[in-house]
Design goal:
36% helix; 235 residues; 6 strands; single chain; alpha/beta; 14% strand
Length: 235
């Protein structure tokens, strides 16, 4: 064990500053009292399929209009305010957050008792080289350890770069993602999989990835993300 690190750990606990504002907290929490109010856990009423927060426990209109190609999705946070900042920090320069996120998701995914392996939404090699890492892979790797499931590193690949999804409509996102994923039939055929990503917004990426996995013979598909956008329509 690194002696210097051991000394530092004894003086400064792992979580001695707030992840959002860097205020010293020294109590093992992730957030200070004020920032904690801005982080919304996705533990309330949700759509039973896409897992996004809703007002009543019924299918959201998006899932009613177009059934997703995964069986069920879960997320740890609502993608807003403090949680959105936390995910952005994870993607930019705090890959260590994978441990915290994986711990939360392992509890959400415990219901998927028939899952046989874990995979993740891939990036192109060009995009990954630019960022330096694939946050979905880091998260999936930790989740696989916690759930004692194999990680399928090459189950699916992204074979072409796509335009940024942020400003696109649902229809534009679907067109943007068309034919950009390719799954390995030998790796996924007949397997029930948990597919990991950082965020679910419209669900277009989840649907594209899971559609390709289904096409290659995968069994049940569960989609797990750190955060998801709350459904804001009326049910």
């Amino acid at each position: 064990m690194n002696v210097f690190k051991a000394i530092l750990d004894s003086i400064f606990p792992e979580n001695y500053t707030c992840e959002l504002c860097s205020t010293e907290i020294f109590d093992g929490s992730r957030f200070c009292v004020d920032c904690r109010k801005t982080v919304i856990f996705n533990d309330g009423v949700t759509c039973p399929v896409c897992g996004r927060g809703t007002t009543v426990p019924e299918l959201c209109l998006d899932c009613k209009a177009l059934a997703p190609r995964y069986d069920k999705a879960v997320s740890a946070f609502e993608y807003a305010d403090g949680a959105a900042k936390l995910v952005l920090a994870f993607k930019k320069d705090r890959p260590y957050l994978k441990n915290y996120f994986a711990e939360l998701l392992s509890k959400k995914c415990a219901q998927f008792t028939d899952a046989q392996a874990i995979c993740f939404v891939p990036m192109t090699s060009k995009a990954q080289a630019k960022r330096g890492f694939n946050q979905a892979y880091l998260l999936a790797k930790e989740l696989a350890k916690l759930m004692n499931l194999p990680l399928l590193k090459n189950a699916i690949q992204k074979v072409k770069d796509t335009a940024p999804q942020k400003s696109l409509t649902r229809a534009e996102r679907e067109q943007n993602l068309k034919s950009c994923f390719k799954a390995d039939r030998a790796a996924v055929q007949g397997k029930n999989l948990i597919v990991v990503d950082d965020v679910m917004t419209t669900g277009a990426t989840a649907d594209a990835v899971c559609g390709e996995l289904k096409k290659r013979g995968a069994g049940k598909l569960y989609f797990a993300t750190v955060a998801s956008v709350r459904f804001k329509g009326e049910l």
